[in-house]
Design a protein that fits this description.
Length: about 210
């Protein structure tokens, strides 16, 4: 079983998608070990407790700087013996230590089809606003391995049609429902089943056509 720790900061809808998939047996060989929140008031903590998952808080506001906060997060991941780290609405860039230690073992999902709009602030409405302004016909979401800088090696992508008259909020909701909530559990499942191989920044999925 792959010991999996989920990092959260907010409402926890992506966390809920992972927990639901795990509950229904859609993520074999995965042990959801714990949920760590950067905000003690995050609703994601309530979701995790309702699922009887251990929860921990590393409160960003209690640390004098980003480095000390990231060090505390890294230490908690080590204490929990994490083998896979899942970012589910976690709003803080991970520190260099965690990125090095868990290279190729940190999974995130973002509301764009990378590399398009990959420099957007993914914790704001910017990706949806930019997609609408650009007049793209397809947006979507990307599950990827986190590394230094924006984006990372792509695991899975799902396109979502941009409708005439879409607002950033309507597009955001549709991308979450049709793409993000599906891709993140799928990416975790593929990892936990040993079906992902990372070579030269390209992710190969076992059984997928090349």
């Amino acid at each position: 079983m792959v010991k999996t720790v989920v990092l959260v900061s907010g409402g926890g809808t992506n966390l809920q998608a992972v927990m639901d998939a795990h509950l229904f047996g859609e993520i074999p060989n995965c042990e959801l070990t714990a949920v760590i929140s950067s905000d003690p008031e995050a609703y994601a903590l309530i979701r995790a407790k309702s699922a009887n998952l251990p929860t921990y808080v590393v409160d960003r506001t209690l640390f004098p700087n980003v480095q000390s906060f990231n060090t505390a997060v890294e230490q908690k991941l080590q204490d929990l013996d994490a083998e896979l780290v899942v970012l589910a609405g976690y709003v803080h860039p991970l520190g260099h230590g965690a990125l090095r230690q868990y290279e190729g073992r940190i999974v995130n999902v973002c509301p764009v089809l990378l590399p398009a709009f990959g420099d957007s602030d993914m914790n704001s409405m910017e990706p949806y606003e930019r997609a609408i302004r650009a007049g793209v016909k397809l947006s979507g979401a990307t599950a990827y391995f986190v590394r230094e800088g924006a984006g990372g090696p792509i695991i899975l992508q799902q396109a979502v049609e941009v409708w005439e008259g879409d607002t950033p909020k309507t597009l955001q909701r549709r991308i979450m429902e049709e793409a993000e909530w599906k891709l993140l559990p799928q990416a975790v499942a593929l990892y936990c089943q040993g079906q992902l191989t990372l070579e030269d920044d390209v992710v190969h999925v076992a059984g997928e056509r090349k």
